[in-house]
Specification:
The structure is a single chain. The chain is mainly beta. The chain has 3 helices and 32 strands.
Length: about 475
């Protein structure tokens, strides 16, 4: 139906009556600067500066080419040339967008013209767009009878979302007008690539920012800022808008073209040196960081569970997986030190032929400087764990004693260090252990075991727990 209506519609904007002084249109051609601050949660703050010569007195102004997902309650307008000389009397947001279907809807019940191929036409009344259906000289006609021509464009239809103001201007100089607003449909995320060295103790880390713009507007040669952090969205958008405007007003660094980080409130603000164009319906990638010779610690972790102390197990629990983790310290001494926004880390390592192969990925959260990044890689193939409950008895009401034997088997050609972590419930006490242990916290026991190459290591411990 939409294709049929579009095909039969020929729009003729013929002047009706004498020329009228209409609103002054300020388009993107008048833009002098634009700045975009993008947040993690599908939110952007746009600051758009345009220049126009306004007549003195009252004037209706159309500010065109704004984002289609704009939140009109967050719009703020001000003059950079003469703030006291420009005041807003009234503000409107027009979003009834122009389309062939909308045009036909506006002309239901009105007179239109249907042109034949030889240039002659019929005066008709459009009765409904469903068909469409026309009335011509008292008769009803269904479907297309020729080219449909409308006399004018309705006032309440706009080609793009438009802000309309009634302004009072007191200066004859050209006014530089700054408009700021919040919009949805624009977001950013961070992605990282970690390349491991041959010994798994050094790495190269690169970070990329991916911007996804579906806001309905293009931001040309824009100053770009990114905010990393969990910004709370309240029910008072004007208050949030003012806070975000202050974030966007932070000073911009000069070249080189890279991101500079600074603390802002309880978040981190990343500012791109220079400018970039962010097109509508475009994904853009920008370099965030690049670091070489970054120390890495690989950890092999064997986890237990709290219910191992509450029940009697008659059979060994075999083929338990040993998790593989990578840890990186985000410090300057480790060739990092830039606050890392949350994102996905993909890890690669060269095989025997030198070809880089994908070995795992994980999400990291926002990580401040000098904190550690922990990346779960998966489970070890050549290391397995097995546990056997050697003893379990009830000593009194809510008091149990249990003894576990843990065997770790290593099928690699090198010795491996494995961390055994046992979550222990209730009030507990270790009665015996074949290896030194650490009480990591009130409910965690930790051992560090060396498992010989093509061999095994055995840990036996006994504890009493009350809960």
């Amino acid at each position: 139906m939409k294709t049929r209506l579009s095909a039969l519609l020929l729009l003729a904007l013929a002047p009706v009556g004498p020329a009228q002084a209409g609103p002054l249109a300020i388009t993107q051609d008048a833009q002098r600067a634009v700045a975009v601050t993008i947040y993690n949660g599908n939110l952007g703050l746009v600051r758009d500066v345009r220049e126009a010569r306004l007549p003195t007195g009252r004037q209706e102004v159309k500010f065109e080419d704004v984002a289609t997902q704009i939140d009109p309650t967050t719009v703020h307008l001000g003059s950079l040339t003469d703030p006291a000389g420009l005041t807003i009397v009234e503000q409107n947001y027009e979003y009834d967008l122009l389309s062939s279907e909308k045009l036909l809807e506006k002309y239901v019940g009105k007179r239109v013209r249907l042109y034949d191929g030889d240039g002659t036409y019929h005066e008709a009344t459009l009765l409904t767009t469903n068909g469409p259906v026309f009335e011509i000289n008292g008769q009803i006609y269904l479907g297309s009878l020729g080219r449909l021509v409308l006399p004018s464009l309705p006032d309440n239809l706009v080609a793009t979302p438009t802000l309309v103001w009634l302004l009072r201007n007191q200066t004859e100089r050209p006014q530089r007008i700054e408009v700021s607003y919040l919009t949805g449909g624009v977001t950013w995320k961070a992605d990282y690539v970690l390349v491991l060295g041959g010994a798994d103790d050094r790495s190269e880390l690169t970070g990329w920012v991916t911007i996804d713009n579906k806001s309905g507007a293009t931001y040309r040669d824009a100053a770009l800022k990114l905010v990393a952090g969990d910004v709370n969205r309240a029910d008072e958008p004007r208050r949030l808008g003012r806070a975000l405007e202050r974030a966007a007003a932070a000073a911009e660094p000069d070249a080189p073209r890279e991101f500079a980080s600074e603390g802002f409130f309880e978040y981190h603000l990343y500012t791109l040196a220079g400018h970039t164009t962010i097109k509508d319906n475009q994904q853009k990638q920008l370099a965030l960081l690049s670091a070489t010779d970054v120390p890495v610690r690989k950890r092999l972790v064997y986890y237990g569970a709290q219910d191992y102390y509450r029940n009697s197990y008659g059979m060994p629990i075999g083929n338990q997986k040993i998790g593989v983790y990578l840890e990186i310290r985000n410090g300057k001494a480790d060739h990092l030190g830039l606050p890392l926004p949350k994102g996905k880390v993909r890890v690669y390592k060269a095989d025997a032929s030198g070809s880089q192969e994908f070995v795992g990925e994980d999400w990291i959260d926002h990580t401040p400087e000098d904190e550690r990044v922990k990346i779960k890689m998966g489970n070890a193939f050549d290391l397995v764990g097995e546990r056997t409950q050697k003893d379990w008895r009830r000593i009194a009401d809510h008091v149990w004693e249990v003894e576990w034997e843990i065997v770790l088997r290593n099928h690699k050609k090198q010795d491996q260090s494995v961390t055994v972590i046992e979550p222990v419930p209730g009030d507990w006490q270790v009665l015996s252990s074949t290896h030194p242990y650490e009480k990591s916290d009130s409910h965690t026991l930790t051992w560090e075991l060396t498992v010989p190459r093509e061999g095994h290591a055995k840990l036996v411990y006994r504890l009493r727990t009350r809960y």
